[in-house]
Specification:
- With about 725 residues, the protein is an alpha+beta fold.
- The protein is built from 31 helices and 16 strands.
- An eight-stranded antiparallel beta sheet has the order 9-10-12-11-15-16-14-13. The protein has a four-stranded mixed beta sheet with strand order 3-2-1-4, sandwiched between helices.
- Helix 18 crosses helix 24 and helix 19 (about 400-410) crosses helix 24 (about 480-500).
- It is globular and about 100 Å long.
- The chain starts with a helix and ends with a helix.
């Protein structure tokens, strides 16, 4: 390396000193923005400070970052004894210039001390790896991963090497090193493009990095990074399991020479030994095509992992499942999915061995595929596995647990193919379901689950449940109560697997309400109608106006706010503006007219968890409705401090089949304080009334739905009026 030659020239022919590289430079892996990590070793020279300055100043003059120290061998070892990072760093030091014997002495003694202290050092290192994963997240599932510190990143491979240096486990294999090279290449190009030391692959850098490294697009780059990180993370997990066994054997003074643990049979050809699942002596993967699924199911049900040796044998076997699958194979897959959380690691091991793609060729299209939605936590394939695991906790609710688990595993399989993922998924499911050996009726049920897997959450959060058209449409689509309950369980599993923003008490209550109403209709009950106002709400309307009532809804962590006021244009907008000023998010709103009085009912949740001062809220609502408040001005001031981010253009559209009695307007826009106020005011300015509003957010995006009536109380049919309201709402959201 040119840098080595330059440093060798800087040091010159100095006796009893050595220049040693550690860190990325020591490993010959420096990126464009990396510092030089150098140790000046010496044998107690008196003038070492002057020599160090002669070395460091020319480096500083070039503008290169420098992490430096001056040590004797005993001093370096003493620092390492008290610092885990320093100790592990010495395991990969490299001689650059000067006395090579002195460098070798430090390396040998550092390794000896590391091995001698392995029972203390390895648990410390394991804790560091765990804390780093919790802090930086998992590279494979992040849209802007930290390539160095994240789980499955460069640091994990370095930790595995440190474990190998203790002689407790083997060094990382070729697959891990290849994955490591992928991350190094991406990190190196990232440094060069960003012109600064950074390890986080930000979205704005991904296009340039992808182009420089020859990827078709940023998604192809992310998939490659994800796959590499998954390989490293899987190997890291296996590494730490082996370290734990080594530490346990060491503590029992058996080492690896003790008698082997007895085998415990788990299934035909499948045994457990020493905390892992392997194959029995009589098992033959070459002729038993169901053995991999049977072994995986047994492992997951026992909460254990398949051994590396067993995985290797299963992956190398030529046997392929016949099509359609035999019942035993399908039952084993269902048992695997139904094992709950332990299934995740087992399925990941199958995926690393490429067995998932053997059973489901369609899997390769979704493997490590990123989802550009902040609500989603995982890549498409991992989301499907997580959904199946979430569904395993809901199997008691449905008549066909097997179809629920299979539907959860395959509901988004179409996301690997261009086009609408539901439409493409149906095409794929028409091939996959018969392959699994399902009878035609069960194939039809799986097709229905995939076709309608978004039906319940969409209807529950974007439609008026009191409008008969909503429940009628759901009932007609679902067809029977068994399918309805399967869809309800799939909806919950899908949302929970997506992330915390996709499921909560509020959404759960809406879906539960919709399912109950639909089940009743499918059982012969009449279509629902809007419930009458409660006695308390009627009392408010009959008293002095305007009047405000507040009712806690503890189950939902929400409040119901009723506002009775003289019926006039813009009531909903004014109320929404005041609620926004008091940091209340509106989740739903309805308006009921009683002669000349409008009763508006809002369901709200505190934006930051704290309820407002209710008397102040009541006062502001009354002032707004009587004399007016400068709502637009005050909300604009708050909006200026609100983070804008990268905002897509808003969308406004009519859903003409959603209601028989109102015109339904859907609004999608970037969420910000007062959005509902602005939209409702724009609607009022067009001379239209809002009968009902459904307000929801997905991450930072608002999806609001308004049921509109014209001045005559009828649907808005006039095309000019529809064009005007659409234009006004677009301007209000921009």
């Amino acid at each position: 390396m040119l840098t080595d030659e330059w440093l060798d020239a800087l040091l010159g022919d100095e006796p009893d000193v050595a220049l040693v590289a550690v860190g990325a430079y020591g490993r010959r892996e420096p990126a464009a923005g990396s510092d030089l990590d150098l140790v000046l070793l010496h044998r107690g020279r008196k003038n070492i400070k002057a020599l160090a300055e002669r070395l460091w100043y020319p480096i500083w003059d070039t503008g290169t970052g420098l992490d430096h120290s001056v040590r004797t061998v005993p001093e370096a070892l003493e620092v390492a004894d008290g610092n885990l990072s320093a100790a592990s760093g010495l395991l990969e030091l490299r001689h650059v210039a000067g006395d090579s014997v002195l460098c070798a002495e430090l390396s040998d003694r550092a390794h000896q001390r590391w091995r001698a202290a392995a029972r203390r050092r390895l648990p410390e290192l394991a804790e560091v790896v765990k804390e780093r994963a919790e802090r930086f997240g998992e590279i494979a599932f992040l849209l802007e991963p930290d390539l160095k510190e994240g789980r499955g990143g460069l640091r994990d491979v370095q930790a595995m090497r440190a474990c190998a240096a203790s002689w407790a486990v083997d060094a990382p294999g070729r697959e891990v090193l290849d994955a490591y090279e992928v991350l190094l290449d991406v990190r190196g190009e990232l440094h060069r493009r960003a012109r600064k030391p950074t390890d986080r692959l930000l979205m704005q850098e991904q296009g340039a990095v992808a182009e420089a490294l020859g990827f078709a697009d940023p998604d192809a780059l992310l998939r490659k990074v994800s796959a590499a990180a998954r390989t490293i993370a899987f190997a890291s997990d296996d590494n730490w399991r082996r370290v734990a066994r080594w530490l346990g054997a060491n503590s029992r003074r058996l080492g690896f020479r003790g008698r082997p643990a007895p085998w415990r049979p788990l299934a035909a050809g499948v045994v457990e030994q020493d905390g892992e699942v392997g194959l029995s002596r009589e098992a033959d993967p070459a002729t038993d095509a169901t053995l991999p699924l049977r072994a995986a199911a047994a492992a997951a049900q026992a909460g254990l992992m398949l051994s590396a040796h067993a995985l290797s044998r299963l992956a190398a076997a030529p046997a392929r499942l016949p099509e359609p699958w035999p019942d035993e194979a399908r039952d084993a897959l269902v048992a695997l999915l139904g094992a709950g959380p332990p299934a995740i690691a087992v399925i990941e091991s199958l995926d690393q061995a490429r067995l998932m793609e053997r059973w489901f060729p369609e899997w390769s299209a979704v493997r490590s595929k990123p989802q550009h939605n902040p609500v989603h936590r995982f890549t498409v394939d991992r989301h499907l596995v997580e959904a199946a695991v979430e569904a395993s906790a809901l199997t008691r609710r449905v008549s066909r647990p097997d179809l629920l688990l299979l539907g959860a595993l395959l509901h988004d399989i179409g996301k690997g193919v261009p086009g609408d993922h539901t439409d493409t998924g149906l095409v794929l499911m028409a091939v996959i379901a018969p392959r699994l050996g399902l009878v035609p009726a069960d194939v039809g049920t799986l097709m229905a689950l995939l076709r309608h897997h978004l039906l319940l959450p969409t209807a529950a959060t974007r439609r008026d449940l009191d409008d008969p058209a909503t429940v009628r449409a759901v009932a007609e689509a679902v067809g029977d109560r068994d399918t309805l309950h399967l869809l309800a369980a799939l909806t919950e599993a899908d949302a929970r697997a997506t992330g915390p923003a996709a499921w909560g008490d509020w959404k759960a209550a809406l879906v539960e309400d919709l399912v109950a109403r639909t089940a009743a209709v499918l059982g012969g009950a009449p279509l629902p109608s809007a419930p009458p106002l409660t006695a308390e709400q009627q009392s408010l309307a009959a008293g002095e106006l305007p009047a405000v009532g507040v009712l806690p809804l503890p189950r939902l962590g929400a409040y119901e706010i009723t506002v009775a006021a003289a019926d006039q244009p813009g009531v909903l907008a004014r109320c929404a503006g005041v609620l926004a000023l008091h940091r209340l998010d509106v989740r739903g709103a309805s308006v009921t007219a009683l002669e000349r009085t409008a009763v508006s009912v809002f369901t709200v949740t505190p934006r930051f968890g704290e309820a407002p001062e209710w008397e102040a809220l009541r006062s502001d609502l009354r002032r707004s409705l009587l004399n007016g408040l400068p709502l637009g001005e005050r909300l604009s001031q708050r909006d200026q401090a609100y983070a804008k981010g990268s905002i897509a253009a808003p969308e406004v559209a009519f859903a003409d089949d959603a209601s028989d009695t109102a015109t339904v307007l859907e609004v999608r826009a970037h969420d910000r304080p007062g959005l509902l106020y602005r939209v409702a005011q724009a609607i009022a300015d067009c001379g239209l009334d809002v009968r009902t509003a459904r307000v929801g957010t997905l991450g930072a995006e608002a999806v609001d739905v308004f049921y509109l009536l014209g001045a005559d109380g009828q649907q808005v049919q006039d095309e000019a009026a529809r064009t005007a309201v659409r234009k006004a709402v677009l301007e209000a959201t921009g």
